[in-house]
Design a protein that fits this description.
The protein is 47% helix and 11% strand. The protein has 14 helices and eight strands. The strands form two sheets. It has a four-stranded parallel sheet, with helices on both faces. Helix 4 packs across helix 7 and helix 6 runs antiparallel to helix 7.
Length: 255
């Protein structure tokens, strides 16, 4: 499947996510460049905010209701909502309905049940909605891929990111040993269980370095920050890049 098969009739919104907007703005920008190249017109609703995942994961689901409401307010008019984050999309699809239901917000639940299924992690949108695996990318480097927990276990994206990476021209894609094992980040888990988090991260770094990859790629910058911080302190020389940045890379505009 190649780029010309892309559907262009959808009204698509970019959900940048708050942590990308704050710390890794290059990732949502790369997402827009990529989708624009595929003929998809992307809108960016300025009213968007946090999806509420941090509150929900920490046990404050009732306090996340305003954020769930904001998400529905901002995005319910769109045919598709695309985010470069399996973690945040997992929160929208797996947690928003539960939050509304437990809060007794029946009207909000109805809205969430319409909006959540139209919210896609980037690789899902490319492969399942646009029907594309070859996005015209070029990235002549040795790369290994870490499937993040939310994308793997909550969204069940399977090998969609790998399908996309295998089609990138010039890439040398190598398997990551123990790829399905958690990196140890887990949001507040890394703060509440620091020693366990570090041990899990050390295992992941050891596996990454065993591949001799130049670049570690994943679909969540939060996990890349955790692994990457350890790799950088080890002076490993391994770069960390979001999937969107590699897929946006071309010969004319290399990443």
């Amino acid at each position: 499947m190649t780029a010309p098969t892309a559907r262009t009739g959808l009204r698509v919104a970019l959900f940048a996510t708050c942590f990308n907007d704050t710390m890794w703005p290059g990732t949502p920008k790369a997402t827009v460049r990529l989708l624009d190249r595929l003929g998809v017109r992307v809108e960016f609703p300025m009213e968007q905010a946090c999806c509420g995942q941090v509150l929900t994961n920490t046990g404050y689901g009732r306090d996340a209701v305003p954020m769930v409401t904001r998400f529905a307010d901002v995005f319910e008019e769109y045919d598709a909502i695309v985010a470069p984050s399996g973690s945040c999309v997992g929160s929208v699809r797996e947690q928003h309905a539960t939050i509304a239901r437990r809060a007794g917000e029946g009207r909000l639940l109805e809205r969430v049940e319409r909006v959540a299924p139209r919210t896609y992690e980037l690789s899902e949108f490319l492969v399942d909605v646009l029907g594309v695996t070859d996005v015209g990318a070029y990235f002549p480097h040795r790369v290994t891929y870490h499937p993040t927990c939310h994308s793997l276990r909550m969204l069940r994206v399977g090998d969609k990111p790998l399908q996309l990476l295998r089609a990138v021209r010039g890439i040398e894609l190598v398997d990551l040993p123990g790829d399905a094992e958690c990196c140890g980040f887990g949001g507040t888990f890394a703060m509440k269980n620091a020693d366990v988090s570090v041990a899990m991260g050390a295992d992941k770094c050891r596996n990454v370095r065993s591949t001799d990859a130049e670049v570690l790629v994943a679909s969540d910058n939060s996990c890349l920050a955790h692994i990457g911080g350890m790799l950088d302190r080890q002076r490993s020389g391994v770069r960390q890049m979001h999937l969107a940045e590699i897929l946006a890379s071309t010969e004319e505009d290399p990443a």
